[in-house]
Write a structure and sequence with these properties.
The chain is α/β, with parallel strands linked by helices. It is built from three helices and eleven strands, in the order H-E-H-E-E-E-E-E-E-H-E-E-E-E.
Length: 152
């Protein structure tokens, strides 16, 4: 979808998933939070956290988050709604590493689904170490992905 369509779609999903929202400082996340019309809340009290992703990995359906201020919105609410620009989707891990250009951030988190653990009595529990639900919205068309300079 276009940027405007993605914002509307994400805002609708956010309203379906909760009454309060925490959004990262990214303009796209802020636009979704505003369009959703939900009550703003700190990440540890929000129903839905909205953020963008630095990259997406097509091969595994993974979103990649960098260490930036506001990353708690991706970790603390029970639902993480993440927007990934189609131009930021790479084929696999090799391309992701190339995009780093030799400069590693202090944290690079790869999320391929909701948090799950079976540490205790081999019973699967979702949402213990992060959101129990991950909702991804792709923004733009992959066919439009130009070759880009990896510096950001």
């Amino acid at each position: 979808p276009t940027r405007a369509e993605a914002i509307r779609l994400a805002a609708t999903r956010a309203r379906e998933l909760g009454a309060t929202v925490a959004a990262s400082a990214e303009p796209l996340a802020q636009a979704v939070a505003a369009a959703a019309g939900l009550t703003p809340a700190p990440p540890d009290q929000a129903d839905v956290g909205v953020s963008g992703a630095w990259r997406g990995i097509a091969e595994t359906g993974t979103v990649v988050l960098r260490s930036e201020p506001g990353r708690l919105v991706a970790a603390l609410p029970p639902v993480h709604l993440v927007l990934v620009r189609a131009v930021d989707v790479v084929a696999g891990l090799t391309e992701l590493i190339a995009d780093l250009g030799g400069e590693l951030p202090s944290a690079l988190v790869q999320v391929t689904g909701p948090s799950k653990t079976a540490d205790i009595e081999q019973t699967l529990i979702t949402g213990v170490h992060g959101p129990g639900r991950l909702v991804l919205v792709l923004v733009g068309k992959v066919a439009e992905r130009p070759r880009r300079n990896t510096a950001r």
